[in-house]
Design brief:
Largest sheet: 8 strands, mixed
Order of helices and strands: HEEEHEEHHEEEHEHEEHHHEHHEEEHHEH
Distance between the termini: 35 Å
Strand content: 15-25%
Number of strands: 16
CATH superfamily of the largest domain: Bira Bifunctional Protein, Domain 2
Structural class: alpha+beta
Number of domains: 2
Strand order of the largest sheet: 6-10-11-16-15-14-13-12
Number of helices: 14
Low-confidence stretches: none
CATH topology of the largest domain: BirA Bifunctional Protein, domain 2
Length: about 450
């Protein structure tokens, strides 16, 4: 008999009769004549109850089944008289696939997020983490669906690169040189390395995406990126996923329009297609989440310049740890004040000082600011960062000189400005930060299956 997943059984209008399910035992209890097991196969949040009678030939073994054990159950799907469940299974045969020992760490009690991070290989079996990782899967699909409907082409950009997109130098080096040889010679001879030059894990697929936007019009890349940033906060990880659309013939305003449409559409998709899992977070994780998502979906996002934002921060009565002034790179406390306290909804900040932004952003007419935009959201701070790109070759070269970037390393990037350059824009959205936004989870480590952070690379 073919196995049926529990989420399918729970959605049935009529009982199909005999069924086969396989999964893990969440709880088991005995009555005088029966053993009741709650089984979950990971396909949905709620379990299905299995009733095993003492007439089963291995009933004694069934009574020894513990939490975490894996079983195969064949029986009749019947209407359940119990509350909170439509169906239950009257077992005709129970096979014990694996009997978990008493040391199984996920017993029926609440476990702290801190403890569950130490057993990240097991935490997907809990309700909360099973739910967020099902949502993560659905949201990844929704991103591809969103851009496919808009006619964008999906681009897989390199993970290993010789370019530093952000210009911050916080990159992980990739090398085949042996440590012994480097120690002996005292130098890193990159010409003798695998690629013949210094190579790193990418911090962004943007530069590559720009090249394809100049050919295909609208493209997006969605994959892992890496930051060797020694920042041990709840919002930072060394490895995370980034969505980066890039659009030809697109200015800054159109760029923000699409970013807003994306966040709204994904939020709606989560509520409509992950209803059961989302309810767990709406009811038990963050009580403010329903109002926040309602605001995101139904209200237009605020928009103002960086200069105006600085004035709001300076004239507020809020005491900030980091001093506010024109030319600073806004800190999380500043971003969250604007989104949570002042506007009480997502807000786009535009036209940042060029001194704190990367070389590729289009210089405004004042020659002091660039056509950049950041989307700040309640509970998180920065969710999206983007800009209109600098399409003018002479201005781009000047910016690279100002930032001491070697133009010979970006010869291919400059070619795109020599041959058929057009106005174009794009942005990057941290996928994990979006998951934090819609779930109310406060730590990025809890929306990544196996988080990579400073001093931690277990699992």
């Amino acid at each position: 008999m073919k196995r049926t997943k529990i989420h399918v059984l729970r959605q049935l209008e009529n009982s199909p009769g005999q069924v086969l399910v396989k999964g893990w035992v969440r709880t088991r209890r005995d009555s005088k004549e029966f053993s009741f097991m709650e089984i979950n196969d990971g396909s949905c949040l709620k379990n299905i109850q299995v009733i095993a009678g003492q007439d089963l030939e291995n009933y004694v073994q069934i009574q020894a089944v513990s939490t975490g054990s894996a079983v195969s159950v064949e029986g009749l799907l019947v209407a359940s008289p119990g509350k909170g469940q439509k169906w239950e299974i009257q077992a005709q045969r129970v096979e014990i696939i694996n009997l978990a020992p008493d040391s199984y760490p996920l017993q029926k009690k609440r476990h702290s997020d801190e403890f569950l991070r130490t057993i990240a290989h097991l935490r997907p079996r809990t309700n909360k983490y099973g739910a967020i990782f099902r949502i993560r899967s659905e949201m990844a699909f929704a991103i591809h669906q969103f851009y496919n409907k808009k006619g964008f082409r999906y681009l897989t950009t390199p993970v290993i690169t010789g370019s530093d997109c952000e210009g911050a130098g916080e990159m992980f080096r990739v090398t085949s040189l042996s440590p012994e040889a480097v120690k002996k010679s005292g130098i890193m001879d990159f010409k003798a390395d695998f690629f013949g030059q210094e190579s790193n894990l990418t911090v962004s697929g943007q530069l590559s995406a720009e090249m394809f936007a100049m050919a295909l019009g609208d493209v997006y890349t969605f994959g892992p990126t890496f930051r060797a940033e020694n920042s041990n906060t709840s919002r930072h990880a060394a490895e995370f996923w980034m969505l980066e659309p890039e659009m030809a013939f697109c200015d800054l305003q159109q760029n923000m329009d699409q970013a807003e449409e994306l966040v709204k559409a994904l939020s709606v998709h989560a509520l409509e297609n992950c209803e059961e899992d989302m309810d767990l977070f709406l009811q038990f994780v963050d009580k403010s989440l329903p109002d926040r998502l309602n605001t995101i979906i139904h209200q237009p996002f605020a928009r103002l310049s960086y200069t105006d934002a600085i004035e709001i921060l300076q004239t507020s009565k809020k005491e900030f740890e980091f001093k506010v002034g024109f030319g600073i790179d806004l800190q999380s406390e500043h971003e969250r004040f604007l989104a949570e306290d002042y506007f009480k909804k997502p807000v786009f900040l535009t036209d940042y000082p060029k001194t704190i932004k990367p070389f590729y952003m289009r210089v405004n007419e004042d020659d002091k600011t660039v056509a950049a935009m950041d989307l700040l959201v309640p509970g998180i701070g920065e969710l999206i960062g983007g800009s209109q790109r600098e399409e003018r070759l002479d201005v781009l070269e000047k910016r690279m000189d100002e930032m001491n970037l070697p133009k010979e390393s970006y010869w291919w990037y400059l070619d795109s400005r020599r041959f058929g350059s057009v106005p174009h824009s794009g942005f990057g959205m941290g996928f994990e930060r979006f998951l934090m936004l819609i779930s109310g989870i406060k730590n990025i480590r809890d929306v990544i299956p196996f988080p990579r952070t400073v001093g931690s690379i277990d699992f």
